[in-house]
Amino acid sequence: MSSHLHLAWQEGPELSSSWQSQRGITSLMLACRLSNLAPNFQASKQVRELLAAKADPAAKAKSNLTALHMAAESLPPQIQHPIPLGDSHTLADSHTPVSSRPHPLPSAVGYPDVVQQLVDVLDANEIDHKLTDGKTALMLACKIGNPMTAKVLLGANADPLLREAPVPTADGFSSIMHAALFGHVECIATVLRNAGQNLDRAAQRDLHHKLLHAHNGNQFTALHLASLHGQRRVVQLLLRERAEVDSANAKGETPLHVSSKNGHAQVVCALLASGAAVNQVDTIGRTALHHCCVTAGGMDVANALMEVGAKRDLLDEEQNTPLHLACKTGNHLTVDSLLKYKVGESAPSPAFRSPLRPNSHPNSPGSSSYAVGGHHTAQ
Fold first, then answer.
1. What is the secondary structure of 244-303 as a DSSP string?
2. Does residue 109 come out as left (phi exceeding 0), alpha (psi in the -120 to 50 range) or beta?
3. Regions of the chain short of the pLDDT cut 70
4. What is the pLDDT of residue 262?
5. pLDDT of residue 75
């Protein structure tokens, strides 16, 4: 084991507390990465020894990387994925705040001891030091799914409201946005429960509200991101914590729109159960039903939407009904579902040309296909 450890963190001559590579990587930073290669106690021991030898915990490498960043995004090798919470917390708990419900966090997940050693010796302004793309250690912990590390950082007053810099390599995400995108429900629960512990009750409520309702540069919330990627358990948690179900992004799309266009039926049902506006339109006049009709496998979503009263005859800016879009994209199962729900026959046919027969038009004489709904049908 000692030879593996030696190879894992030593390169060339014996490393000292002041050693740096040409890119600015220090021996302390390398020791903080040992959790990916060796048991936790080995990494913790090396970090303790280096700090005792006056290694600089605030040293910056290329891209503003610090030892805290290295430690925050490390997972022990025996834990490839955080252990999920049970599914017992469902929408039936919707009136119980996260702070009063048990959320078991696996003790093996994350790298809290090394992180704790670092935050104990760092100045307060170094806890939220950002990489060049704006990521903090807390963001990295939430992105990779380290709830225990996130808890340690929040205990050191890491700011959960900070967002990435608006640069091409970053999306302006906050910590819980990163966690929502990747489905790390434990990290979101940890942030909501542990953020602002030194604040009074009114300030904590205000912080809780800001975390849930924060938008990135494209006006996506954490609920948007979880809905976009079908992270059902994250969606349920955010809804229980009173995330705004009908918040619109820069395109006017709500979480219901983005989950519908990606065919996430379970997420759609969760949003509808929390009162999502089924007929809200985006900036081009499309409802969630429009969006699911252009998605392969959108039939289940369409059925869920129509069960709660989705209007089937609404026109978007191009004068398309949901049925027009389903026909246009060849989603025959969705077409069947729409017809079973008695799509209105009064909607006009949109002016579009078939990609298969560019010289044909639904209303042109001699066309082999013409509109459904009492006026025309395919021959």
1. -TT---TTS--HHHHHHHTT-HHHHHHHHHTT--TT---TTS--HHHHHHTSTT-HHHHH
2. beta
3. 1-23, 34-41, 75-111, 166-170, 342-379
4. 93
5. 66
Query: What does 97-121 look like in DSSP terms, one character per residue?
Result: -GGGS-----TTSS-HHHHHHHHHH
Give pLDDT, residue 123. 93
pLDDT of residue 325: 92
Within-domain flag for 223: no
Instruction: Give 138-195 pLDDT, tens digit per residue.
Output: 999 999 998 999 999 999 999 999 998 866 666 889 999 999 999 999 999 999 999 9
Q: Which of 152, 178, 203 is the last residue of a domain?
A: 203
pLDDT score for 78: 44
* Domain count for the chain: 2
Mark whether 172 and 308 lie in a shared domain: no
- First and final C-alpha spacing in the chain: 74
3-state secondary structure at position 39 = coil
Q: Does 120 lie in the same domain as 17?
A: yes
Nearest to 207 by CA among 216, 217, 198: 198
pTM across the whole model: 0.75
Q: Say if residue 222 is exposed, middle or buried (CB neighbours under 10 Å; 0-12, 13-18, 19+).
A: buried
Tokens 């609920």 sit on residue: 223
154 in Cβ contact with 114 (< 8 Å): no
Angle formed at CA 28 by CA 24 and CA 33, multiple of 5 degrees: 95
What is the H or E stretch that residue 322 is in?
A: helix 322-328
Strand partners, 95: none
From CA 360, how far away is CA 352, in angstroms rounded? Answer: 9
pLDDT of residue 347: 43
341 burial level (CB within 10 Å; 0-12, 13-18, 19+): middle
Looking at residue 86, its pLDDT comes to: 38
Give the structural domain span for 127: 2-203
Cβ pair 242, 95 in contact under 8 A? no
Q: How far, in Å, CA of 211 to CA of 150, rounded?
A: 15
